[in-house]
Amino acid sequence: MKKNLRKYERGQAIIIVAFAIVGLVAMVGLVTDTGMLLINYGKLKRGVDAASVAAAQQYRLQGNVLNTEALENAAYNFLQLNDTPGVTSVTVHSCDVSDPQRPALCNPIGGDEIDNRKLVEVTASADVRFGFLNVIGIDSTTITATSVGEAATIDLVMIIDTSASMAYETGYEADSAARQVPDSDDDPSVCNTHNDPTANDPQSCQPMNQIKAVALDFLETLYFPYDRVAVVTMTSQTAGGSRSPVELLPLTSVKADVVNAISDIKVFEPRTCASDENTNPQPGACLFYDGSGSFLGLPCWMFQAYATDGSGLADPSSCPSSNVGGTMVLAQNALTGSGDPAKQRLDSFWVVVALLGGPANSTDANGSYPNGFCPRNTFYQPEEAGGPRGYAYSSPTSSSVALPSGKSQGQCRDMFPTVRHSSSVSLVDYTNPFTGPEAQVYPYDADDYARDMADNLATTITGTGVTIFTIGLGDQVTTMKFTDASQPTAAGISLLRYIAECAGEGVSDCETPVANPLINHGQYFFAPNSAALSDIFKKIANNIATKISQ
Questions:
Q1: What are φ and ψ of residue 252, in 5° steps?
Q2: pLDDT for res 400
């Protein structure tokens, strides 16, 4: 009986082993295929992360409509480039108000514009085929990953030079020598009556209207209402107004407001000279006409009336209007909310684009300097031959001023742009070219002030700072006029390059590139005339686009 019983048990081990092998294969399959599942999910997640960033970089307008197809293509292409296997579907949603399925984390429609963010949500699904789990009837499964990419919103301040030189191409003369003498077309009061950048006006105020037209085109590279723009002008925008810079428009996401502000920009139009200006001079430059009403320029009578009489009353400090430092102050103010800290966006990309027609020659008023910093040692300086037209600083009549040989009216800055004075600098000796040694003077000048204010602007926020682009327009930027011959570059180039490429780095000048910059700097561009501006603004737009991914 025992022998028979042993015969009956012989097949049980085989059955147990068979079932054990199935279980073992299932366990091995679970471990192996779960590993495959995790590996594939990791690849999918990395691909989706990269795809969301790539899609966010396409957050641009095309025909004033967000190019959603570009977002989707960028996402799909990056999934392919990352060799993400088995992708079956890709969906892309943006924070654009036209997207009916905006991600839940987007600023609700009608919410505060400050909370607008350029977010792109990418969701992708992929099939994962199993190997061992087929034994128990599980062939595959679908995995899904979601990621949100962001392109930084842009807070941009546009600085426009509106000094009287922005009318110098009106009735443009082909011969540069002919442009040394002003004509009626250069009269700012006339120029400002033809200030529509979209009109086909043969008397169009130039280069101002061309500047405005290019600036309006530049707006098309931004995305409203997510990006914001502020506008700062070099001078006031009212007839007979002051030469002080103006925040024409605080940061706004309303494109129409920006367009209107830029379209309405006017060239500086000071008061008309009084009939007795040469004997009873008043502060500031003024529009000067001859007896027949022909425009002769913008003389500085406070300087010219006393320039040669030895009285020491000659003072040009109230006349120049290129307050570069003042525009830097207003740009910083705009980025920080124009007095309301709640309106600043610390997580946005802060950028300034400054179009300037020359070096600094005035500053904001400061305490005992009601006309700004303009040291007496800058009142008379050598004038280099072949300098640019500068009728605002020349004699309005041939006999009004006879300056010392080789001297001309100063520009409130010394002749050494690479020499940097601190605002706490000690007094220096001064010798009047007429009367000899005089009292000591404070050498801190318009160029020093502009660089200090640019430093403050560039370092307004921590991290990579504020990115500043500068555009120098016209020959007054590149000329060596009122710059010592020993200096390596003209005052205009030296200042504008410093602002764009070295501000905030703690260096005195920008002749040597900064080795390890702390600031995410922009670039300095030169435009010989207004026709060259379009390509420069395109380069700036592309440069900004490559920096907005976070």
A1: -145, 150
A2: 44
Tokens of residue 540, six digits: 């700036």
Angle at 541 between CA 537 and CA 547, to 5 degrees: 145
Cα–Cα distance for residue pair 53/75, rounded to 1 Å: 8
pLDDT by residue (tens digit) across 121-161? 899 898 888 776 676 677 788 889 998 888 878 999 999 99
Range of lowest pLDDT (80-89, 375-384, 396-405): 396-405
Summarize pLDDT for 448-506 with one digit per residue, the tens. Answer: 999 999 999 999 987 788 999 999 998 889 887 778 888 889 999 999 999 999 999 99
Backbone phi and psi for residue 31, each to the nearest 5 degrees, phi listed first: -65, -50
User: Helix, strand, or coil here: 218?
Assistant: helix
Distance CA(167)–CA(173), nearest Å, equals 12
Give domain 154-545's CATH architecture. Answer: 3-Layer(aba) Sandwich (3.40)
Q: Give the per-residue pLDDT at 150.
A: 82
Work out the percent of the chain whose per-residue pLDDT is above 70.
85
Q: Is 523 helix (H, G, I), strand (E, B) or coil?
A: coil
pLDDT of residue 456: 96
Distance of CA 517 to the CA centre of its chain: 18
Q: Give the strand pairing for 380-382 and 349-356.
A: unpaired
Query: Bridge-partner residues for 24, per DSSP?
Result: none
- Residue 301: partners with Cβ closer than 8 Å, 6 or more residues away: 273, 277, 278, 281, 282, 286
Farthest CA pair distance, the chain: 146
Give residue 441's identity as a one-letter amino acid code: V
Q: What phi and psi, each to the nearest 5 degrees, are found at residue 94?
A: -110, 175
245: helix, strand or coil: coil
The span from the CA of 420 to the CA of 447, in Å, is 8
Predicted TM-score of the model (pTM) = 0.83
DSSP summary character for residue 466: -
- Cβ-in-10-Å burial (0-12, 13-18, 19+) of 47 comes to buried
Query: Residue 361 corresponds to which tokens in the numbers above?
Result: 């020659």
Share of the chain above pLDDT 90, in %: 33
User: Bridge-partner residues for 351, per DSSP?
Assistant: 156, 467
CA nearest 84: which of 50, 55, 113?
Answer: 50
Residue type, 149: G
Give domain limits for the chain. 13-151, 154-545
Query: Quick one: tokens of 406?
Result: 């080789």
Q: Which residue's entry shows tokens 């000071």?
A: 270
Intra-chain end-to-end CA distance of the chain, in Å: 83
Q: Count CB atoms within 10 A of the CB of residue 354.
A: 27
Q: How many CA atoms lie within 13 A of 27 on its CB side?
A: 6
In the chain, count of helices (H) and strands (E)? 12, 17
Residue 258 tokens, joined: 């920006």
Taking residue 182's Cβ as centre, other Cβ atoms within 10 Å add up to 22
Do 497 and 418 meet the contact criterion of CB atoms below 8 Å apart? no
Which residues sit opposite 233 in a β-bridge?
Answer: 160, 246
H/E run at residue 330: helix 324-335
DSSP letter for each residue of 150-178? EEPPEEEEEEE--SGGGGTTTT--SSGGG
At residue 222, the 3 state secondary structure works out as coil
